[in-house]
Amino acid sequence: MTILAYDLGAGSGRAIVGRLTDHRIVTQEIHRFANEPVKVGPHLYWDILRLYHELQQGLVTAKQERMVPESIGIDSWAVDFGLIGRSGELLGNPYHYRDPHTTGVMDELIAELTAERIFEATGIQFLSFNTLYQLAALRREDSSLLKEAQRLLMIPDLLRYFMTGEMINEFTNATTTQLYNARQQEWDRKLLSHIGIPSSWFGKPVQPGTSAGRLRSSLMDELGLPAIAVTAVAEHDTASAVVAVPALSDSFAYLSCGTWSLMGTEVSEPVIHEQALQLNFTNEGGAYGTYRLLKNIMGLWIFEEYKRECERNGHHASYGEWLSGVEQAPAFQSFIDPDDPIFLHAGDMAKRVADYCRRTNQPIPASRGAMARCIFESLVLKYRYVLELTEQLSGKTFDGLHMVGGGIQNRLLCQWTANAIARPVWAGPAEGSAIGNLAVQWIAQGAFRDIREARAVIRDSFPVDVYEPQDQEAWEQAYARFCRYVEVPVQ
């Protein structure tokens, strides 16, 4: 049985074919492509039609390689969306979540509604680019898009619609909008009414594993393909990554590590109370009756943007050369809070890191290696802080941390994470989101009984690297200094 997972990240996308052989998963990447936003005037957009073209190219490659799949699933990042007009056409390119048009909108809505009211309904972390604030920004600007719109589709919903002609909202991504009422299990009509958005734009979200149609006839004719089934998987890429965590028990902590880092645990019910609000945790929908109690951390974005900045200035180095420079730089010289708002938008990261260090009376990193080391050390120390908060909120204690996603290919980051949290790190699989996407399709088809069996097969199919903590005294001292400089209380 051959199936296909499209996994779209903030910087790239991939098409991965999966097969089950002797109760082992075999995957093959058949197409990889860049996902580069486009800036036009003051705004930053996703090149959504290019992404759709790349999905088609994945199918063309599958056909050429005699691997036509029996089903297809799509996962991507959260919060961004497209608006569909009366004729069924897309109204404009979707905004990128790093576009500045939402500046100030979150604070305005909190002042109008209170953070307590919004969190009590949705259980979602306050991030300035959430769908709630993107729509409120469009309403504030009196956008013409809102006058013509009839439906709102999240990015995987939208790409699925292009492929099938079916407009379906999926649960895990719907919950990230901060417009879905976690208690009532439906779109929050009062929030929508407050920002002037009709509830008719939203369909009842379907659960991961739901059939979402088949390839539309025009696409079948164009590509010479049969009516391949399309499944609504756990379409938020983190939800798919959590499906793929090869945990031995139902109680575990995870870190999905890439451009963003998302750390948390699975819970059976949303954790919605004052402490969760104050700590700005989120309760996003998961697969198979779970919620993901987690916190977004800025992740590798700061380093990636800094690396691009250096390349624009003529410094071209491999990832290995970067890590060599990091290891040669002195340890624990300066720290930043990766989640400080100054690091959210694209731009001069070296200047922003320097400004942060200057503001907190720390040495400014004096070389590229030192700058990267400051970023990496700060990131893993923030992981420790969030892991301990996760234990407080969930009432659980974790023996170690499961890391999945492309970031685990940075072995230095994995080892430093183990050092920082003073516990083992189990790293793998790297293609967590794609593998979780495949797993949901197989569960829907009956190839696996449930998620426990799927995780057991994933555990047997992909290597997991174990990192044991080292240099504990030095990292303990560094963590105390980190907490002081980023103004968080030591747990």
The profile of the biggest β sheet is:
7 strands, mixed
Task: State the helix count.
Answer: 19
How do the strands of the widest beta sheet line up side by side?
15-16-14-13-17-18-19
Mass-distribution shape:
globular
- Structural class assignment: alpha+beta
Low-confidence stretches: none
What is the number of strand segments?
19
Helix percent band: 40-55%
Strand content range = 15-25%
Alpha-carbon Rg, integer = 22 Å
For the record, give the distance between the C-alpha atoms at the N and C termini, rounded to a whole number: 49 Å
Write down the overall mean pLDDT. 96
Polypeptide structure, described:
49% of the residues are buried. Helix 2 crosses helix 3 and helix 10 crosses helix 17. The chain is α+β, with helices and mostly antiparallel strands and 491 residues long. A hairpin with a 3-residue loop joins strand 13 and strand 14. It is built from 19 helices and 19 strands. It is globular. The protein is 41% helix and 20% strand. The strands form 5 sheets. A 7-stranded mixed β-sheet has the order 15-16-14-13-17-18-19, with helices on both faces. Strands 3-2-1-6-12-11 form a 6-stranded mixed β-sheet, sandwiched between helices. The mean pLDDT is 96.
